[in-house]
Amino acid sequence: MTQIIRNLNTLRSQQMSRSQIRQRFQNLERSVNQLTELLNQNECSSNPCRNGGTCVDAYNGFICQCPSAWEGPTCENDVNECGRYSGTPFGCQNGATCYNSPGSYRCECPANWHGIHCSEQHDDCKTASHEALCGHGTCIDLDRVFAGQPKYKCLCDEGWKSDGVNPACNTDIDECHESHVSCSTNPPVQCINSLGSFHCGPCPPGYSGNGYSCTDINECLVNNGGCSVSPMVQCMNNIGSRSCGPCPAGYTGNGEYCTFSGACRMNNGGCHPLATCIENTAISPLYRECRCPSGLTGSGVGPNGCITATGTACEANPCLHGSCQVSGNNYICICSPGYTGTLCETPTNPCDSNPCRNGGTCINQQTSFTCQCSSEWQGSLCEEASQICSGNFHQEIGSIQYPTGPLAEYPHEKDCIWILSTIPGKVFNVTFNRFNIEYSPDCSYDFLQINDGPSAIDNAIGRFCGNVAPKNGNIISTHNFLYMLFHSDGDTAADGFNLTWTTTDPGNICAICKKIYIKILLYEKRKIIILEFNF
What we know:
Blueprint: H1 2-13, H2 18-40, E1 54-58, E2 61-65, E3 70-71, E4 77-78, H3 81-84, E5 97-101, E6 104-108, E7 113-114, E8 120-121, H4 130-134, E9 137-141, E10 152-156, E11 160-161, E12 171-172, E13 191-194, E14 197-200, E15 207-209, E16 214-216, E17 235-238, E18 241-244, E19 251-253, E20 258-260, E21 276-279, E22 288-291, E23 296-297, E24 307-308, E25 322-327, E26 330-335, E27 339-340, E28 346-347, E29 361-365, E30 368-372, E31 377-378, E32 384-385, E33 391-394, E34 398-402, E35 415-421, E36 427-436, E37 447-451, E38 460-464, E39 474-476, E40 481-487, E41 496-504, H5 509-512, E42 517-524, E43 527-534
Parallel strand pairs: 33-35
Antiparallel strand pairs: 1-2, 3-4, 5-6, 7-8, 9-10, 11-12, 13-14, 15-16, 17-18, 19-20, 21-22, 23-24, 25-26, 27-28, 29-30, 31-32, 34-41, 35-40, 36-39, 36-41, 37-38, 37-40, 42-43
C-alpha cells in the first residue's frame, strides 16, 4: 500500500502521457494481485511440521512450534535430553545412567534409588510395619546393593534373634543356656526360659533375694539360730546355713539341744586328753579337777595342760591345724592357711583383708573367697574394667554408663539394648548426668532410642543424639518397664552417656517434676495454635 501511494504521488508530480499512466496502473494492479494471492495462500495445508509440531501460517511461509523433545524447522530433529538436562533437576540424579531415545529419554537408577529422575531413595523399612518385617525387633534401613532387592537389618529385642536366613527376629533365645544369664550362680539358682525372656527361680533355703541375686541370711541373729540358749551355745553363721558349737563342759548334745551330764562327761571336762577329770559337786555342779597322769606335769587343763617333765611342750601335739614350735618352756603354733588362734583352732575369714577391688563384694568360702563384681568391673578381684553392652536390670535403683572403664569414646558398629524393670505399679525416674552422642539432624547415624515399655514397639519417648540430654536431662516413665536401644555406625564417635534411675509411685510424679506442660496442636488453615497448661 505504501508503494501504491508513492506511485500516485509520483503521477501527480509528473506530467505523463496517458499510455504511460495506463501501463503503470496495470503494473500496480499485478503487484496488488500477487500480494493478495500470497496473503491468501495457507502454507500449513500440507502439514509440514513433523513429530507432533504445530504449524503457524506466515507470509510466504510457515513456522513450526515443536514439542520439547524435538527441534528443527519442521521438528525433524530429536532433542538429546541427556545432554541438555545434565546437571539440572530434570536430568538423571544420584549417579544414574541416562539413555536418549527418539522423542524421549530414560534414567537407569543405581540400586538404592528410583523414580523418573532417580531422585527417590529406597526405604525398605517403610514398606511394612516393624512387626511385619522384623517380628520382635526394630527395622533399620540399609543401602540396596542390587537393584530390585530390598535391604534392611533387624535389631532384635532382648530375648529374640534371627534364624540366620531371614533377618526377622522370630527365634527365641534360650537365655538359660547363654553364658551371660544373670540368675545367681553363688548360690546356684534355676533359670527358667520363656518366649522372649526368662526368669529365675527362688533363692535356696538360707538365702534371701529375688533369684537374680541372693544374700546369705545370718540365722544366728534370730533366737541364736536355733542353737541352745540354756546353756548358751555359740551359733556360727555359714554361707546358706548355720552350725552350732559344742555343748559346754558338763553337757551332752548336738549344740541345738544340750543335756546336763556332769562336768567330766563331755570332752573330758576340758582337761588334757591324757588327764583324769575328777568332779566335785560339793563345790558346784560343774566344778572339776584335771590331774595329769604319771610322767606328765602341768595344770591338766586344755590341750597343753600336760607335758612330759623332761620333754618339750610340743610333744603333746597341741596345735590343732598347724605345726608346733618350742619357745623356752612353752610353745608357739604356726597355723596352716585358713586358721588362726593360739592353738590354730579358729578358721580365718579371707574377706577380712578386703581383697575385692572397685567396690566388689567378698564372699567367704571358708579357706578361700570369691568376688562378686559390679557391672563395670570383672576379673577374680574385680580389677579389670568391663565393656557391658546390653543387659536386663531388675532393680529399683541403678545406673548405666556407656562406655565404661578407661575408654574415651564408644566403639563403632555397636547395637546395645538395656531393659529396666521394677516392681509392678511403680514407675522410673531417670536422670542423665552426661550425654554426648554424634549429632545428625534426624539422629540416623548414632542415637539412643527410649521406649516407655519392655520393647521397641511400645510407646516411643524419643530418639536422641547430640550433646543435649534427652528431655532436659529427666525422663519419667508411665510403666514399670523402660527399653533403651543404643546404635553407633562406622564413622564418628563420642564419649557416650551416663544415667541413674530410681523408682517411685505414679502419684509422686508431680512432686518430683517442677513443671508439666500439655501442648495441644490445632491445625487450621496452616496455622498452629499452642495451648500450654502449667500445673
